[in-house]
Specification:
Length: 123
């Protein structure tokens, strides 16, 4: 599935490189020293994101179950291999993305103005 502003016939490598750039932009507030240290995580996250998209397409086309034959008379269905890979990879991708987002500077929450300070100041 092509993302917005993404050429339809991109190679996997081109998609991964575009995803590396996208993730790097999201991490623009991270200091350059930390970003250099986690470059491997960024590349792995990008690879997994593109691979997960491909797995989703495959599962949409072929379904999430596959038939198997164990011996001459034993048939059945099981989760497709793509589902197994997807489930493992999505957990790993989520872990990496959490590690990356934890690097972002923490911003203090701005308390919502309920008007009380202004009321007291007027008195």
């Amino acid at each position: 599935m092509a993302k917005k502003n993404e050429p339809i016939n991109q190679t996997k490598e081109e998609k991964i490189e575009a995803e590396v750039k996208r993730i790097s932009q999201l991490l623009s507030e991270v200091d350059s020293k930390s970003k250099k240290i986690v470059q491997s995580l960024i590349k792995n996250a990008a690879f997994m994101a593109i691979t997960l998209e491909e797995l989703q397409e495959t599962m949409n086309e072929n379904g999430v179950v596959s038939e198997y034959q164990n011996g001459a008379n034993q048939w059945g269905t099981k989760k497709s291999p793509e589902v197994e890979i997807y489930n493992t990879m999505i957990k790993n991708h989520s872990t990496i993305m959490k590690q990356l987002t934890d690097l972002l500077p923490k911003t203090a929450p701005v308390p919502e103005d309920d008007g009380f300070e202004g009321f007291v100041a007027e008195r």
